[in-house]
Amino acid sequence: MKKTCKIPGFGGFLMLLIPLLFSSTGFSQDVSITPLPDPASGIRDQASGTGQPGFHPGNWVLVIHGGAGGPPQGSMSEEQEQAYKDKLNEALAVGTGILEKGGSSMEAVEAVVMFMEDCPLFNAGKGAVYNDEGYAEMDASIMDGSTLMAGAVTGVTTIRHPVSAARLVMTETRHVLLMCEGADLFAQAQGLEMVDRSYFQTPARTKQYERMKEQQRSKSDTIKEKKDSRPDTVSMKDDNTKGTVGAVALDNMGNLAAATSTGGLMMKMKGRIGDTPIIGAGTYANNATCAVSCTGTGEYFMRNVIAYDVSALMEYRDWSLEEATNYLIRDKLKSQGGGGGLIAVDKDGNIAMPFNTNAMFRGYAKAKEGAVVEIYP
Predict the structure, then answer these.
(1) Half-sphere exposure of residue 248, counting CA atoms within 13 Å on the CB side?
(2) Distance CA 258, CA 248 (A)
(3) Please, are residues 262 and 244 in contact by the beta-carbon 8 Å criterion?
(4) What does DSSP assign to residue 327?
(5) How many CB atoms lie within 10 A of CB 260?
(6) Residue 47 Cα to chain centre, angstroms
(7) Which are the contacts of 209, defined by CB distance < 8 A and separation ≥ 6?
(8) What tens digit of pLDDT does each residue of 249-276 get?
């Protein structure tokens, strides 16, 4: 009898295959799967600063400012000048106390700005200037150079420390910028200290507001003269106010951070937003380049994206921090009539504090070095 080979049907084939699928040598074995690349990893690597030439962990740096502008040298009494210098030194002490103990640059810049928000000498927090309706609308921002994460608030009126609200926007939300009532409510929900609007008022600011309001009343009520009398058109030559506080730092781990806070411009239109809460205009930090905090007439800083442009000139043109900051403040802004200045520190610990106004309240401290504070050129 002739034998034939019978080919099993599909059902039989499955019966033969199933044991293989579940055997110890079959598909049940652990399979090594190569994960897909993280699309954000390149950004984090760029910002990390790791492996960058001149990277010196352990050499912290702190730079602060209390605003650009102010009267010409000799206009303030020695007592007034000393009062500003004392507060600048106290602000530096707050930040250096954190950095020298190994604290982060983010902790340092937030703490410094909080201190300055509580000092009525400066235009931020208590002592902030008033809008055209007679109360303070404040802005603040903060940026972490190690992650490129940032947070900001604008138009807030009842948060004692706007810079802390800005940091919480960064850490507790998926957003970058919250405004006005929404920002105030968010800060309250986060447990920050809330105060009445009147807390921010001081006799000196009230007197300044009333004087400027009277000056506006005395002018003709034409659209042209209203525009010319607005403080947002004040140029370097007509600068008699101080505004904004800020801090930048390089910590012992080589991480950069920047924070800025302000009341804006005296007699600004209600709802006006300046450069301070705009990441890249008034504040920027990137471990690959530098950390920057700006001060001055915000419209010019926004139109020129000054804070980010410092970093861009360093990264794309290979300019030094000094070259980039001097060009932007003393050449580019000056040619447009924009008054102001900035503070910056780069990844190697170099600092810059250029300004094109009468004065800029500023100071710096470095590891194993004493603090330095200055007002005039």
Answers:
(1) 30
(2) 4
(3) yes
(4) I
(5) 37
(6) 16
(7) 129, 130, 134, 266, 267
(8) 999 999 999 999 999 999 999 999 999 9
| Residue 1 falls inside a structural domain | no
Q: Are 305 and 280 contacting, i.e. CB atoms less than 8 angstroms apart?
A: yes
DSSP state letter for 159: B
214 inside domain? yes
State how far the alpha carbon of 174 is from the alpha carbons of 40, 142, 168, 257, in Å.
15, 15, 10, 19
CA angle 240, 242, 247 (to 5 degrees): 155
* Cβ–Cβ under 8 Å, residues 156 and 184: yes
Instruction: Write the CA distances from 125 to 87, 111, 130, 261, integer angstroms.
Output: 15, 13, 11, 8
**Does the pLDDT value for residue 169 go beyond 70?**
yes
Pairing of strands 149-156, 177-179: parallel
**Has this prediction a pTM greater than 0.90?**
no
Tokens encoding 253: 């781990």
pLDDT of amino acid 168: 98
Q: Tokens 């640059």 identify what position?
A: 105
Which residues form the catalytic set?
A: 244
In-domain check, residue 6: no
Lowest mean per-residue pLDDT among 126-140, 226-240, 314-328, 363-377: 226-240
Q: Identify the pLDDT of residue 9.
A: 52
Domain span holding position 67: 43-374
Q: Supply the pLDDT for residue 133.
A: 96
For residue 216, give the CATH number of its domain: 3.60.20.30
Residue with tokens 């599909």: 10
Structure tokens at 79: 């007592």
Domain assignment present for residue 19? The answer is: no
How many independent structural domains does the chain possess? 1
**Which DSSP letter does residue 28 get?**
T
Task: State yes or no: pLDDT of 228 exceeds 50.
Answer: no
Which residue type does 290 have? C
Token pair, residue 107, equals 């902790």
Q: What SS3 class is residue 232?
A: helix
* Burial class of residue 117 in the structure, from the number of CB atoms within 10 Å of its CB (0-12 exposed, 13-18 middle, 19+ buried): buried
